[in-house]
Write a structure and sequence with these properties.
The structure holds 2 protein chains of 2 kinds. By secondary structure, chain A is of the alpha/beta class. Helices cover 52% and strands 16% of the residues of chain A. The longest helix of chain A is centred in the first third of the chain and has 24 residues. In chain B, the strands form 2 sheets. Chain B has a two-stranded antiparallel sheet with strand order 1-4. Classes of the chains: A alpha/beta, B mainly alpha.
Chain lengths: 329, 344
């Protein structure tokens, strides 16, 4: 037993030491891997850090990541992507990008107040910042070049109108991230235009099984609910299961796309998806930062750049389906 | 003639042995290994700017880990500590922004529910004799619901913000959540609070009667009671200490960001326990140290930020983090086991 213990000790400590040594030799290699997809392209186009509030593994944010990385590849720029739903962690990631002297920052601000200090610090350090997705109202105040996203309230209103036209009178609005003000605004927008009652349900986006059973329980408890609006494609699939399992007649609409959602639109299980075309929220800011670095261009003229809303319905779902499979829609 | 050098060798081994049996030594080795590893991967990591960066998450985690370590040495767990940081922050920001209280006063008011919850946790554990794992899991879930429910009821949204405009904010922020510039680099004030808490906890554990009691009830509660240790009081006190630490961390976080989300702190409770265990605390109680828990927090902070500095793909982040922690803990426990062999 004791001999085994000693052997393992030696092995573990050895592994740690070796890891350190090989890092010394392969320093260049390590920095190349930082570019994720930039790879051999080097850093001629600059290094840009994308820091979002999306949890790793969220299909929506994966498309943003794909967009940013594809743009980085196109321009020969190194793009790093980090996501953390905790605003404190997100602030730390921004601080880190500043100490690494990135050529530009792309930040989604689900909680602008909490990121104020870090973002303004980056701006003070002369690092150009572009905000995406959420936090457009604070973008200009913090000194960002522009905001790339869609107005949540406007998108919510659009969804509410369309649902009303489909005859929905009692709507369940499913919120999947506690603390994201943007989600609240979407529900508010839908409430404003629907004309009927809107109830909210809180679920956890990282526990889809639980989300399914919660939505199902609510639909069974109140059979007068005839519409469900989800704000995330993974939750849309959960709601689709819940509606099918519970034999509910509720009509389902969602924000944002995934391959699954598009399939369901084609089969009629989901009415429509409000598409904010988040690929653009990855691609455009890298493009803007690249142009800023090389040509000092500022896009937007102090106004946000809108990437949506667009609607995906049965009519255009087939074309979008092919693109969603590639992870760009 | 021949016996003299033999004595010298024995004496030398004695010093080494005494050093090795310290519970924190293993974690020091782990911390050095993690530091060396990431330093070789990223120049920014070992720069002053980088150090300030990874000390930042380590500081608030460290304050909690030290308090949790005391509790774990006393043989109990507290799963509600993470959410409690959110609760205290919410109370403080709500009082300051919705009711116009001075920030200092609002902060002190946040201590009241914290102490009450700590007391309740302790009392339930002592009286019902249920495992603290279950009791505090209950309070953890209750607080989680209470945080969200009350926040929505009072503000209509899922976060309270606007602390920046409250009276006394600047002063409170400078003391608890500001930063100190040294050599052109901003270091968080929380780092000093972390050091102070670690020093205080170490002093209590090593130099006071209360410290002896904590080790005693964690080692063998019945034997401790038999020799007259007031086990119930010590345990309730430990839970209240944890709650006080949660209050401190909650206040620091709220002051730093000027707003608190209803979901703040959820999931952190396990990180605190992990940091304490990396630092040499036994899950069964009776063994561990405050310094060790602090170093555990340091390892966690270094691994957490080092992975980003090294530029590894974020999709693999959690995997690397888990592997780093496992390796650091392995190194720690093996060094300790070796030390215990040497003692025999």
């Amino acid at each position: 037993m004791t001999r085994v213990t000693r052997l393992i000790t030696a092995a573990v400590l050895g592994a740690l030491v070796l890891g350190g040594c090989s890092g010394e030799n392969g320093g260049g290699q390590a920095s190349a891997s930082a570019s994720s997809t930039g790879g051999q392209a080097g850093t001629g186009g600059g290094t840009y850090a994308v820091i979002t509030h999306g949890a790793p593994g969220d299909p929506f944010w994966d498309v943003v990541k794909n967009g940013a990385e594809a743009a980085g590849k196109r321009y020969g720029a190194a793009v790093t992507y980090q996501g953390d739903g905790d605003p404190a962690k997100q602030a730390q990631l921004i601080d880190q990008a500043v100490s690494q002297k990135a050529d530009g920052l792309v930040v989604s601000m689900a909680n602008p107040d909490a990121l104020r200090e870090s973002v303004t610090k980056a701006v003070a350090a002369k690092i150009p910042v572009i905000t995406i997705n959420s936090g457009g109202d604070s973008s200009k105040e913090f000194g960002a070049i522009t905001h790339v996203g869609q107005s949540e309230e406007v998108a919510g209103r659009g969804a509410g109108e369309k649902l009303k036209a489909e005859g929905v009178t009692k709507l369940l609005c499913v919120i999947h991230e506690a603390g994201n003000v943007g989600l609240d605004q979407r529900c508010n927008g839908a409430t404003a235009t629907l004309g009927g009652t809107v109830e909210r349900l809180q679920v956890d986006v990282s526990n889809l099984a639980d989300a399914t059973s919660k939505i199902k329980a609510r639909l069974q408890a109140d059979t007068s609910v005839n519409g469900v609006l989800t704000l995330n494609p993974a939750i849309a699939v959960a709601a689709r299961e819940a509606i099918a399992d519970g034999r509910s007649k509720a009509k389902l609409a969602t924000f944002d796309l995934s391959a699954d959602v598009v399939d369901s639109i084609q089969t009629g299980q989901i009415l429509f998806a409000v598409d904010q075309q988040q690929y653009l929220q990855g691609w455009l800011p890298i493009t803007f930062l690249y142009l800023y670095k090389n040509n000092l261009n500022t896009v937007g003229g102090g106004l946000p750049v809108n990437t949506g809303p667009g609607f995906v319905t049965k009519d255009n779902a087939a074309q979008v389906a092919e693109l969603a499979l590639e992870g760009t829609r | 003639m021949t016996s003299v050098p033999a004595d010298e060798r024995l004496a030398g081994a004695g010093v080494l042995r005494r050093l090795l049996v310290r519970p924190e030594l293993g974690s020091v080795v782990g911390a050095l290994a993690v530091f060396a590893f990431f330093s070789s991967r990223s120049a920014v990591f070992r720069s002053a700017d980088g150090v300030a960066n990874w000390l930042d998450p380590a500081s608030t985690l460290g304050i909690m880990a030290v308090a949790i370590a005391l509790l774990m040495i006393g043989g109990e767990f507290d799963l509600s500590a993470g959410v409690l940081t959110g609760t205290t922050g919410l109370v403080m920001v709500t009082l300051a922004t919705r009711f116009g209280w001075n920030v200092w006063l609002a902060m002190l008011a946040g201590l009241v529910p914290a102490l009450a919850i700590g007391f309740l946790n302790g009392l339930l554990v002592v009286r019902t004799r249920l495992p603290s794992f279950i009791v505090t899991l209950g309070t953890f879930l209750m607080l989680q619901g209470l945080n969200l429910g009350l926040t929505k009821a009072i503000t209509g949204t899922v976060q309270v913000s606007g602390l920046r405009r409250a009276e006394g904010y600047e002063g409170a922020r400078a003391v608890l959540a500001g930063s100190v510039t040294a050599g052109g680099v901003d270091f968080r004030v929380a780092i000093f609070w972390w050091l102070a808490v670690t020093a205080l906890a170490t002093w209590v554990l090593m130099r006071t009667r209360a410290g002896n009691w904590i080790f005693a009830i964690g080692g063998d509660e019945r034997a401790a009671r038999a020799v007259g240790v007031p086990a119930a009081r010590v345990k309730i006190g430990l839970f209240m200490t944890t709650a006080t630490a949660a209050w401190l961390v909650g206040s620091i976080t709220a002051l730093r960001f000027g707003s608190v989300q209803a979901g703040t702190g959820i999931g952190q409770e396990f990180i605190y326990i992990i940091a304490a265990v990396i630092g040499g605390c036994l899950l069964t109680g009776g063994y561990g140290s405050a310094v060790g828990a602090s170093i555990g927090a340091l390892i966690f902070g270094m691994a957490d930020k080092g992975i980003v500095f090294a530029g590894w793909d974020a999709d693999w982040f959690k995997f690397f983090l888990g592997a780093m922690l496992l390796l650091a803990t392995l190194a720690n426990s093996l060094v300790r086991r070796y030390a215990e062999e040497a003692r025999r």
